[in-house]
């Protein structure tokens, strides 16, 4: 397991990270779709895993953002 780190961020900074990660995740989702269309299974798996890991991190960060 990876080592945990403590980083102090403002709510605005967390929201900026969430926005950036959402855009990044969309890129991986699109890349997975293209790879699927081109029958590149290894790429589909890699891009899907990246999108899944980003989604997990997004969920954790979104819990910290005040409504």
What does this structure look like?
The chain has 67 residues and is mostly helical. Helix content is 76%, strand content 0%. It contains two helices and no strands. Helix 1 runs antiparallel to helix 2 (41-64). It starts with 10 loop residues before the first helix and ends with a helix. The relative contact order is 0.16. The model has no long low-confidence stretch (mean pLDDT 94).
Concise description?
This protein is mainly α and 67 residues long. Helix content is 76%, strand content 0%.
Distinctive features:
single chain, 67 residues, mainly alpha, 2 helices, 76% helix, elongated
Our measurement of the CA-to-CA distance between the termini, rounded to an integer number of angstroms, reads 31 Å
Secondary structure: helix percent: over 70%
Tally of DSSP helical segments: 2
Query: Which consecutive residue ranges, at least 5 long each, have pLDDT under 50?
Result: none
Query: What is the global morphology?
Result: elongated
Characterize the largest beta sheet: strand count, sense, and whether it forms a barrel.
Answer: none
Strand content bin: under 5%
Q: Please state the CA-atom Rg, rounded to the nearest Å.
A: 14 Å
DSSP E strands, number: 0
Based on the structure, what is the oligomeric state of the protein chains?
Answer: single chain
Can you write the helix and strand succession as a string? HH
> What average pLDDT do the residues reach?
94
SS-derived structural category: mainly alpha
């Amino acid at each position: 397991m990876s080592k945990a780190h403590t980083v102090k961020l403002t709510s605005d900074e967390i929201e900026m990270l969430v926005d950036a990660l959402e855009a990044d995740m969309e890129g991986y989702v699109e890349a997975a779709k293209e790879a699927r269309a081109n029958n590149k299974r290894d790429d589909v798996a890699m891009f899907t895993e990246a999108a899944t890991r980003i989604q997990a991190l997004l969920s954790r960060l979104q819990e910290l953002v005040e409504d």
